[in-house]
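Subject: Protein record for review, amino acid sequence with backbone structure tokens
Category: Structural biology, sequence-to-fold work with a learned token vocabulary.
Format: Residues in single-letter code; tokens as whole numbers, each standing for a residue.
Body of memo: The sequence and its backbone structure tokens, given next.
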Amino acid sequence: MRILKFRAWDKEKMIDGDSLAFEDYAPIKDLLSGEGIMQFTGLKDKNGVDIYEGDIINLINAEGDSINVVCEFGTARRRVIDCTVDITGFYFKLDNGKKSFPVVDNYLGKHDLELFEVIGNIYEHPELMEVQG
């Protein structure tokens, strides 16, 4: 069973969905168009921290570089064998725009989530997604 949890950015602070009812908090009502509302992915990072849309994740890529990616929800097009498929769900977007999904058996023989670490989010720490290099 999937756990549905949300949080919201009210332009000054992060509001945890568990801490108050969204419908009773006026600034959140203005955000219901989707801007600033983040859904829990159902995934946790290597430290057991919940991963939400908008979270910035630090990971070590196959080249051994430490990079930051953003968790987003949407559709990614993938080539599988001889056909192209659209996958809709949570993915991790690299600064070059490429969309990646966590894999069970990565280049180190581990599940990606054993390596991912939430280090912030795009609202409170946008500087973490500045061009790295």
Remarks:
- Helices lie at 26-31.
- The chain has one domain: 6-129.
